[in-house]
Please model this.
Amino acid sequence: MSDNFQNRCPLFSRFSIKAGLIEAWGRGTIKITDECNNAGLPEPEFKEEFGGFAVYFFKDIYTEDILKKTGLNERQIIAVKYIKKHGSINLSDLKKLIQSVTEKTLYRDLQGLVNKEILIEIGEKKGRNYKLLR
Model:
């Protein structure tokens, strides 16, 4: 995409680099993506559209208020918060966090999150981890 812009606007491209407005082609998108990841936000979408370039930023869709509105129970919300902080969760992790219900109930909670397309499963049976879909 940046090569295309460079070809269409060579004068502006040279000016931008010489003026220090950009370091190198393509570096800004990497920085933006890294900063979103560091902030725990979904990665932005970069699109060339309507003769220009657009960046779409997304807010954190996994806040407690939003999760409650999707009909999740408190155990499922605890699991999502844990994943946001640690990157993934497994059944053993969830059992340590929530000891008031059976393992079977916790497994059903995780499967419910998978069915609602909030989590994805990685691995088989005992080695299975769960991560946020986005």
Notes: Residues 121 and 130 are 5 Å apart (CA to CA). The radius of gyration is 21 Å. Helices lie at 2-8, 10-18, 27-38, 64-69, 74-86, 91-97, 103-115.
